[in-house]
Amino acid sequence: MKIAIYHNNNEQTLAVTKQLTTLLKQHHLVIDNDHPDLVITVGGDGTLLGAFHHYEHCVDQISFVGIHTGHLGFYTDWRGYEVATLVDKIATMQPQLVAYPLLKGVITYADGSPNDEFLALNESSLKRLSETLRIDVYISGEFFESFRGDGLCVSTPTGSTAYNKSVGGAVLHPKLETLQMAEVASINNLVYRTLSAPIVIAPDDWIDLRPEVADDYVITVDEFANNNRPLQQIHYEIAKERIHFARYRTHRFWDRVEGAFIGSKEHNNEI
Ligand code: NAP
Ligand code: MN
């Protein structure tokens, strides 16, 4: 098995990364950052997002395990000080592999230039900061609503605890095969009427956003943001590719949610 290490550059991370590298070598595990089977991230959830995009081209062939150098995250099962236990497990056991949905986006431009496609692990949003943005929303090809406001956010189940949650979306269990669309500050009046609630689509549904023609909106894809040329449509569907996580111990999603957002219980690290 070939292992890649992907890390951020803060001081604590660099110390853990050094220890991790030494331990992997001691266990005769091969480090190969170009063609890995397993990607170990060291940092935060944001670091795992970075690793996902770095290895996006081969995401179906690899699995991820995350070490968090701060608090426990949603994509990170291990704490910095547990790196020796993790390496022992990697050397001696077969992990449980879990696969979660990704978001596929296809951008069609107003000038007819070639479409752009992307994958997102958390979410993609279409936003405008200067004025309000008008977007016609279609679900599975049928007109659904005319939105006016700051923007719309389409997220994966694992992304539901990120930006989606901040804009009032529901937290979804990542085993669900779905996407969620949440509104960002919609205006509701006699002309523009939206559902004013997040929606969760069926596995074979898709969402098309057709904004008014303008050149000052922003398309976000996870940690990236683009100021794009006028677009005709963004199409969102569940990607064929999935992200795989290697679990070397129990992961209880609702405990993780409680630990991250409520924090009223005592936790050990096994959540
Ligand atoms: P960032 O601005 O450094 O991170 C924003 C925060 O979101 C960090 O605390 C990050 O955790 C956390 N996070 C990332 N993915 C998460 C997930 N799936 N569930 C719960 N929390 C999550 O940027 P970043 O670290 O590169 O992350 C990019 C993400 O930030 C975007 O995909 C978006 O979801 C989120 N974001 C949120 C808001 C908002 O809530 N208003 C605004 C912009 C972006 P770590 O500290 O462990 O990295
Ligand atoms: Mn971050």
UniProtKB/TrEMBL annotation:
<keyword id="KW-0547">Nucleotide-binding</keyword>
<dbReference type="GO" id="GO:0003951">
    <property type="term" value="F:NAD+ kinase activity"/>
</dbReference>
<keyword id="KW-0808">Transferase</keyword>
<dbReference type="GO" id="GO:0051287">
    <property type="term" value="F:NAD binding"/>
</dbReference>
<feature type="binding site">
    <location>
        <begin position="122"/>
        <end position="123"/>
    </location>
    <ligand>
        <name>NAD(+)</name>
    </ligand>
</feature>
<dbReference type="InterPro" id="IPR017437">
    <property type="entry name" value="ATP-NAD_kinase_PpnK-typ_C"/>
</dbReference>
<feature type="binding site">
    <location>
        <begin position="161"/>
        <end position="166"/>
    </location>
    <ligand>
        <name>NAD(+)</name>
    </ligand>
</feature>
<dbReference type="GO" id="GO:0005524">
    <property type="term" value="F:ATP binding"/>
</dbReference>
<keyword id="KW-0521">NADP</keyword>
<keyword id="KW-0418">Kinase</keyword>
<feature type="active site" description="Proton acceptor">
    <location>
        <position position="45"/>
    </location>
</feature>
<dbReference type="Pfam" id="PF01513">
    <property type="entry name" value="NAD_kinase"/>
</dbReference>
<protein>
    <recommendedName>
        <fullName>NAD kinase</fullName>
        <ecNumber>2.7.1.23</ecNumber>
    </recommendedName>
</protein>
<dbReference type="Pfam" id="PF20143">
    <property type="entry name" value="NAD_kinase_C"/>
</dbReference>
<dbReference type="GO" id="GO:0046872">
    <property type="term" value="F:metal ion binding"/>
</dbReference>
<feature type="binding site">
    <location>
        <position position="148"/>
    </location>
    <ligand>
        <name>NAD(+)</name>
    </ligand>
</feature>
<feature type="binding site">
    <location>
        <position position="185"/>
    </location>
    <ligand>
        <name>NAD(+)</name>
    </ligand>
</feature>
<dbReference type="InterPro" id="IPR002504">
    <property type="entry name" value="NADK"/>
</dbReference>
<dbReference type="InterPro" id="IPR017438">
    <property type="entry name" value="ATP-NAD_kinase_N"/>
</dbReference>
<keyword id="KW-0963">Cytoplasm</keyword>
<dbReference type="GO" id="GO:0019674">
    <property type="term" value="P:NAD+ metabolic process"/>
</dbReference>
<dbReference type="GO" id="GO:0006741">
    <property type="term" value="P:NADP+ biosynthetic process"/>
</dbReference>
<keyword id="KW-0520">NAD</keyword>
<comment type="function">
    <text>Involved in the regulation of the intracellular balance of NAD and NADP, and is a key enzyme in the biosynthesis of NADP. Catalyzes specifically the phosphorylation on 2'-hydroxyl of the adenosine moiety of NAD to yield NADP.</text>
</comment>
<dbReference type="InterPro" id="IPR016064">
    <property type="entry name" value="NAD/diacylglycerol_kinase_sf"/>
</dbReference>
<keyword id="KW-0067">ATP-binding</keyword>
<comment type="similarity">
    <text>Belongs to the NAD kinase family.</text>
</comment>
<feature type="binding site">
    <location>
        <position position="150"/>
    </location>
    <ligand>
        <name>NAD(+)</name>
    </ligand>
</feature>
<feature type="binding site">
    <location>
        <begin position="45"/>
        <end position="46"/>
    </location>
    <ligand>
        <name>NAD(+)</name>
    </ligand>
</feature>
<dbReference type="GO" id="GO:0005737">
    <property type="term" value="C:cytoplasm"/>
</dbReference>
